[in-house]
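Researcher: Batch entry, complex prediction.
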Amino acid sequence: MRLILIGPPGAGKGTQAAFLVERFGLVTVATGDILRAARQAGTPLGLQAKEYMDRGALVPDEVVIGLVRERLSQPDTVNFLLDGFPRTVPQAEALDGLLAELGRPLDAAVLLEVPEELLIDRLTGRYTCRSCGAVYHLKDHPPLRPGVCDRCGGELYQRSDDSPETVQRRLRVYREETAPLVDYYRRRGILRTVDGTGTVAEVTDRILAVLGAAPR
Ligand code: ADP
Ligand code: AMP
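Model: C-alpha cells for the complex:
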C-alpha cells in the first residue's frame, strides 16, 4: 500500500503514521523528520533547511523533491507512507511523475481535518523525542516519566517551530500552499477525508474505515 497523509501541522499525521506503518508494513518517509535529522547532523542540507524551518516557511520545492526522489527510488520503499510531503502543488506533480516512472502509484491520500483552535493547543503542548521522533502531548498523551520517551528512553524536547508565533505562520502557509492539494487529490479520485478530532484511537478507526481495512 502507498499512502500520503495530508493535514495542517498538528493534525496528527505523525501520531497516526506510527500505527499505520506497523499495521500495513509500510516505510515512513517524513520530510520534516529527515530535515530535522539533517539539521542535527549539521549537513549542508540541514544548514540550508534551518532558516526556513525556524521561520515556519516551507523549504524550497527542489530541495525537498530531491530528497524524496532519492528515498523513494530505493528498493525498500515499494510500500510507503508519506508524512508531510507533498506540501505544494509542484511537489505533488513531481511525486506523480516519480511514481509513474517507478510504476508505484498511490492508493490513497488521507486528509486529517482538525479545527484551528485545536491545532494550536496540540502544537503548543507537543513534545518530541530527540532520538526516535515519537510525539507526546503535555495533557492528552503525556509520557510515563516527564521528559523521557516511553519508546526509547530518549530526551523529549519542544520543537522551536511549535512556539505560538511560528505556529500561526505555519497554519497560514498550510492554508495558502498546502490546502490546494485537497482538490488536487479529489480530482484524481484518491482523496479520503477523515475527522481528526477525538482520541487517537478514534481517528485511527476512521482511517481504517476509509481505507476499507479491517478494524483494529
Ligand atoms: P502532525 O504530525 O500532523 O504535525 P502530530 O502527530 O505530531 O501532528 O500531533 C500533534 C500533537 O497532537 C502531538 O502532541 C500529539 O501527541 C497530539 N495528538 C495527535 N493526535 C491527537 C488526538 N487524536 N487527540 C489528542 N492529541 C493528539
Ligand atoms: P513537519 O515536521 O512536517 O511539521 O515539518 C517541519 C518543517 O519542515 C516545515 O515547517 C517546513 O519548514 C519543513 N518541511 C517539511 N516537509 C516539507 C515539505 N514537503 N516541503 C517544504 N518544507 C517542508
